[in-house]
Amino acid sequence: xxxxxxxxxxxxxALFFTSISGAASAHGLGESDIRNLAExxxxxxxQKTALTEIMHSYPxxxxxxxxxxxxxxxxxxxxEAAVRKHFECFGDFGIKVLAKSNExxxxxxxxxxxxxxxxxxxxxxxxxxxxxxxxxxxxRIFRTLSDVSFTHNPAEEFSRNKETYSxxxxxxxxxxxxxxxxxxxxxxxxxTVRPHVVSEWMKADEQTVxxxxxxxxxxxxxxxxxxxxLPVLKEVVKSPDFWTDIFPPVGEIVKRGDARATMLDxxxxxxxxxxxxxxxxxxxxxxxxxxxxxxxxxxxxNVQFTIGSKDLRTTDLSTQKYRKLAYQVFNSIYVRK
Length: 337
What we know:
alpha+beta; three-stranded antiparallel sheet; 10 strands; 26% strand; disordered N terminus
């Protein structure tokens, strides 16, 4: 018997066409990205200069400075070198921006002096407090630093710098309180246009855009509700209709990944991934989606983690890079009673 999965619609295709020009992140290649990079570079250079000056002029503060530097390095390993390196992603323009930043920094840094130990200690305390409780500006800077520091290892960023979100209080969540975590460099879109999309997170990685969403459908097919048990789901994932049902006709499935029935705590769930080729207004995208579907209080919850680019090879390489992170995100999902 065919098991309807239409509740699991692939809702990311349209989002990708609007986002592929670059998500608001340090690591895309848009105008805001290089601005974020320059901002982060200025912060790192100022902090380095100020801390050096504090240790030089007030040696009694050196142990506290060294302890703070260790904490900062642990959060953002190799941040300064990584920021410099990322200017190169923008070609000649990036190199010019870096040169201009260095010129400006060179003029300002000789003035970084502290008239007395009390002022030096205040500045150190401010650096420490900001790392623990960033302002809106430093939050953006730290997201940029986190992004570039872990560019080759997004799963490690998740381990060191993650942020946990909750659907509690979101009217689209229909009373469900689901927690999920993402690395610090991912940006949450607070307002989502589509009716079933509760929340959306984005990140750009040069030619690739990553989007993850939580969707909740309050009226899944009655047959889905009646049959949502692990033994049934184990058979469902083997059925010939499974792939076309869970990845509906927004494009052609060019690669099938894995499909299995599993448990998310006490909730039976389906986990699947595939690459879809999709076209809109003459633009072709290759989207690899990791997909999780489970039922809570008879509401269908779907979590999607999608990697998209304009060519199959880029999407394949990015999928290899982000596969571990996708499963870390899924493993972080927790349904609060």
